[in-house]
Write a structure and sequence with these properties.
Blueprint lengths: L1 H9 L15 H29 L4 H26 L6 H17 L3 H4 L3 H17 L1 H16 L4 H25 L3 H19 L24 H9 L2 H15 L2 H13 L4 H29 L1 H19 L5 H9 L1 H19 L5 H31 L3 H25 L2
Helix pairs in contact: 2-7, 2-8, 2-9, 3-6, 3-17, 4-6, 4-7, 4-9, 7-17, 8-13, 11-16, 11-17, 11-18, 12-17, 13-14, 13-15, 13-16, 14-16, 14-18, 16-17
Length: 420
């Protein structure tokens, strides 16, 4: 009888009986982990170029260091996605990726030993660390989506907490640099990697990838196809491929903004604080959309949301190319809610719906590999020459890129929504 009770207890719904360091709800667990991941990226994204420059790297060298792992995601994304799906628990690959990323980033601090070869040390270790850490986000997205379906919460809430943490990290590291110097950046990033690994182990739920309809844990679902076959199955779906192309154009168009908006604003006479507030306004708009945009998605559908994101992205970059005064920049920054957040939210839902059972993580990893990897990497490489040639009018090139995404999104909308 006791054995039967124990077996029954072992098959209860996965989340509420989870044994862990803290008695937290699933939403709080996911939110905390998102926050840790984004606190780390809040230092690495805006400030690591400054650290590389302090170690003697030129602008061209820094550009190559940053762009290489983005371009490599065409390979590392699918490989790590297939590898992650071999684990029965969602959190297991995230623990390993966070540790590997922390070790690689920590190796960057050994640069004095490399002497004149430090550039190649930076190239190799940054590529490894960045590939590991950025692969956590799509896996976490898949986990949060599945948990939201099992427990009935809105999966965009935890992601919004992550975006808020990103803003806080930007501000904190900015102040910290004044007190502790540029080496704070690499220490911050390394510590946050290992903190994320610890949080994945002690805070993230022991949630299995697959559960029985009654709520108990199901045997690990292992697709019959090999990893390469599952990649081919996904890429053999023309709607999936066109969806990635549309999102890649819309999201990749942000590369010029990420790289040169502050430089252009300073050229217009804005001070550093105003530039920071403008960046914060964009991320704040993103947070609000992630918190409440699911209502728009529920009402109008993800295909409509994608179409709106692409259209407003074109509008945003077209107007930015005219170098509007500061009073015009504030409303334009709120369009980040659509050009980024709406595209992201629609893409998460559509990619998840298209993925065959057992390939959800792989589908999202391919999505991240193409959209925030290859397309963002190519756009980043192109943005420098575009800026040199066109200055602020380079935004119009990004508007054209978003326009291509809009055309693809319109075709998909007509095919998926309006067809009889």
């Amino acid at each position: 009888m006791q054995r039967a009770v124990a077996v029954a207890a072992d098959q209860r719904p996965i989340m509420r009986s989870d044994s862990s360091l803290f008695a937290l709800t699933t939403v709080k667990r996911q939110s905390l982990f998102y926050a840790l991941i984004f606190i780390g990226s809040g230092a690495s994204l805006p400030y690591m170029p400054l650290w590389f420059a302090s170690k003697g790297m030129s602008g061209a060298q820094i550009g190559l260091i940053l762009a290489l792992p983005l371009l490599l995601r065409a390979v590392t994304g699918p490989v790590l996605g297939v590898w992650a799906e071999k684990f029965p628990l969602f959190r297991s690959p995230m623990i390993r990726l966070a540790i590997a990323g922390g070790l690689a980033y920590g190796g960057l601090m050994l640069w004095p030993l490399a002497g004149e070869a430090r550039f190649w040390l930076f190239v190799a270790l940054w590529a490894i660390g960045y590939s590991c850490i950025t692969s956590i986000s799509p896996l976490l997205d898949v986990m949060t989506i599945q948990m939201s379906k099992r427990e009935g919460f809105t999966y965009t809430g935890p992601r919004a907490v992550g975006s808020a943490a990103f803003i806080g990290a930007n501000i904190a590291v900015g102040y910290g640099l004044n007190l502790l110097g540029v080496d704070l950046i690499i220490v911050w990033v390394v510590v946050l990697c290992f903190a994320a690994a610890l949080a994945a182990w002690r805070i993230l739920p022991r949630a299995p990838r697959h559960v029985e309809e009654g709520g108990g844990r199901a045997p690990a679902y292992l697709p019959q196809e090999t990893g390469a076959q599952r990649v081919r199955t996904l890429l053999g779906n023309p709607v999936y491929v066109l969806l990635l192309a549309a999102m890649g154009c819309v999201q990749g168009a942000h590369a010029f903004y990420y790289g040169f908006s502050t430089i252009l604003w300073k050229g217009q006479g804005l001070d550093g604080a105003t530039c920071g507030y403008l960046w914060g306004a964009g991320v704040a708009a993103e947070i609000l959309f992630l918190m409440f945009g699911f209502r728009l998605r529920h009402r109008f559908g993800s295909w409509t949301l994608l179409l709106a994101a692409a259209g407003l992205s074109v509008v945003r970059w077209l107007i930015m190319g005219f170098a509007p005064p500061v009073w015009g920049l504030w409303p334009l920054q709120t369009l980040h809610a659509f050009s980024f957040a709406a595209c992201y939210l629609a893409g998460l839902d559509l990619v998840n719906r298209m993925a065959p059972k057992g390939s959800e993580s792989l589908a999202q990893t391919l999505n991240a590999a193409w959209v925030t990897g290859v397309m963002m990497g190519l756009s980043t490489l192109a943005s420098g020459p575009v800026y040199d040639a066109l200055g602020g009018r380079g935004y119009w090139v990004m508007a054209g890129m978003s326009g291509v995404g809009l055309l693809i999104a319109a075709y998909l909308y007509r095919r998926q929504v309006m067809r009889p």
